[in-house]
Amino acid sequence: MNNPLNSLRIIGPILVLAALLMGGGTVWMWGKSTSDWRAHGTSAYDAGVTMYYAMQNGTAPPAGIRVTPLSTADQVYATNGSFRQIAGAPVAPRVTIVPILPDAANQITGASVTMAILSPDLTYGLADLPHRDGQTAAETMGAITRKLATFCNDPFVVAHMGDSDWVEIEGNAIWGVRRCPP
Predict the structure, then answer these.
(1) Neighbours of 79 (CB within 10 A)
(2) Measured CA angle at 131 (ends 130, 133), to 5 deg
(3) pTM of this prediction?
(4) CA separation for the pair 120, 70 (Å, rounded)
(5) What is the pLDDT of residues 172-181, one digit of tens each?
(6) DSSP 34-51
(7) Which of 134, 153, 173 is nearest to 51 (CA)?
(8) What is the 3-state composition of the chain as percent helix, strand, coil, each rounded to the nearest 5?
(9) Under a CB-based contact definition with an 8 Å cutoff, are residues 102 and 138 in contact?
């Protein structure tokens, strides 16, 4: 009546092998997730840099981002800082105002950018954005779009550069909830 499966000599190595396989699978999943999130952030950063230059030079925005001029009434709301009044804005949003200073080295074509990010759920903190001497305005916009992608929300974003008209930047294909890695 001695069952060999009741022996610690059999069960012990099986449990150790099972724990080793589970640990290896967990490490692989963690590494894959980290890699996917890093790629997601890099993609959003690149889109933000390209978006800045598109606004500056009047070229096409990057793939996944649509830029639409605001209506005349919404231009007035945006200019006055009444972003919650803009058509299409979420109900009772939290507003994050993001000023981006022009490049110190590029005074000819550089202009300041003001972004307003409206979200029903989040206020985006700006204090932890990377900053270094010589950082360009395009790099700052890239850091902001990376932050948008990190929080996986569907914010309503409006912006304008210098004295140009306000535009809605619809980039949920880059930084929205459906684009976030699992």
Answers:
(1) 12
(2) 150
(3) 0.83
(4) 20
(5) 999 988 888 8
(6) HHHHHHHHHHHHHHHHHH
(7) 173
(8) 45, 15, 35
(9) no
